[in-house]
Write a structure and sequence with these properties.
161 residues, alpha+beta, five-stranded antiparallel beta sheet, three-stranded antiparallel beta sheet, 2 helices, 8 strands, globular, signal
Length: 161
Amino acid sequence: MIKTHLPRFKKYLIFLTIALVSPLAYAFGPDAAEQEMLSWSNRCFTQSFDAAATGKLKKWELTLTEDAFIRLRKTYANGKQEYFSFHLQRFDDMDYLGTVTAGTLKLHTTDDDIIVQTYNDRKGNVDTMAAVLDIPVKNMEPERLDSLRNVLMYFKKKALN
């Protein structure tokens, strides 16, 4: 008698689990996927940024933020700082010049939409705008470039809605 109820109990338990978990997975799925894409892109930036190609950097930070901004801050050993920022709403496309070993990632905006600021520069502090952000990178496989472009385009589309 116990054996006949056990399979039915398992069926109900499985059905109940699916019924309860499915709405939760649907509710949290898109945000979890977006967080994973955000984390992946920031890992990609961190692992690929070629600080040696930029000069004598004391520190640097390259991130895609949750509110869809690309931000690059470079601090040189002499104290000079360069800051670049733009919202992905203004992102147009990207190009890559170089080899798998080293190259330059070029992020294009639709117009002069990239904020460029310098601090502690001998020539004076400068605030200007640009249409292309050049990022020196290393170890960029074609698949990785394609994935990065897809993530940036996804967040652009989301920012436009």
